[in-house]
Design a protein that fits this description.
- It is built from ten helices and ten strands.
- It is α/β, with parallel strands linked by helices and about 280 residues long.
- It has an eight-stranded parallel barrel with strand order 1-2-5-6-7-8-9-10.
- Helix 8 links the parallel strand 8 and strand 9.
């Protein structure tokens, strides 16, 4: 009885018979043509959406803030250089991360703080911003910082100048307990499909209400005008991060967020200034 030839061996035999130079060239050409077609379709689609956004009238909610992500202006993240750049560029709002040293000192920093020399003390930052109109988005990377952060905010009397982000739903209780009287947004990534459902909209409201937050903080990929309208109609706000390209900036702007965080503040401002032109 003859041995059965495996599918793998059959395929190898097929390639050996048919993989000529001419066939390879034609196949390569077809692949390249297909990829170029995909790029063209993507480009046309992006252009069409961008133009459609331009034709909409741009509106802003009261108190809208363009928040500058830490490290913008070609500075190091969580540095005093960044804070100074934000102030000198008349930023509406600036963002940086907060942690604490082993001795409890609250500092700027994204990485885990392991010594009492790491990070820039937040008190030195508050000294700079307390007499300005700039607001500060404090990204809480470690909820152990909450008590010390609250004391520092109260000491400088800037509760109306700061707000917290980076708070997960399960952490919200700690914020209301240890950092009362300080506004915060709760992190959530809502469905852009389910948001059209009345039940899902109510779920979003329930999440924010139960958390004690002033609104929802989410990545730009998950936001929509419907989400913003639902939150606003119920007295809550929408914070969106991190919006850095022309297309995403326009999509987020027409959704009417309360806070738009970006690494490219000049780009966002240029789009706003030239909207519809």
């Amino acid at each position: 009885m003859p041995n059965k030839v495996s599918k793998k061996e059959k395929f190898k035999a097929f390639l050996k018979r048919n993989m000529t130079r001419t066939w390879a060239k034609r196949f390569s050409y077809q692949v390249v043509a297909f990829l170029i077609s995909l790029c063209m379709v993507a480009g046309v689609t992006t252009y069409a959406f961008t133009k459609s956004y331009d034709q909409m009238k741009l509106h802003f909610v009261d108190g809208f803030a363009l928040c500058v992500h830490t490290g913008a202006y070609n500075t190091a993240q969580n540095s005093m250089e960044f804070v100074d750049a934000g102030i000198s560029n008349n930023a509406m709002s600036i963002e940086f991360n907060v942690r604490q040293r082993p001795d409890g000192t609250v500092v700027m920093g994204n990485d885990i703080i392991t010594t009492n020399n790491d990070g820039i003390e937040l008190s030195s930052v508050f000294d700079k911003i307390k007499d300005t109109d700039i607001s500060v988005n404090l990204v809480v990377d470690d909820i152990r910082v909450l008590s010390g952060l609250h004391d520092l905010i109260m000491e400088y009397g800037i509760a109306d100048q700061v707000f917290l982000t980076g708070i997960e739903v399960f952490q919200a209780g700690k914020v209301t307990e240890q950092c009362p009287d300080v506004d915060f947004y709760v992190n959530y990534m809502p469905s852009r499909i389910k948001i059209f459902s009345d039940d899902y909209q109510q779920k979003m409201i329930d999440i924010v209400e139960k958390s004690g937050a002033i609104g929802m903080n989410c990545n730009f990929a998950y936001i929509s005008r419907t989400l913003a309208d639902v939150l606003h109609e119920n007295g809550y706000k929408l914070s969106v991060w991190t919006v850095d390209t022309q297309w995403t900036v326009k999509r987020v702007l027409v959704s009417m967020p309360d806070v738009l965080t970006t690494n490219e503040p000049e780009l966002v401002q240029s789009i706003i200034d030239n909207w519809g032109k």
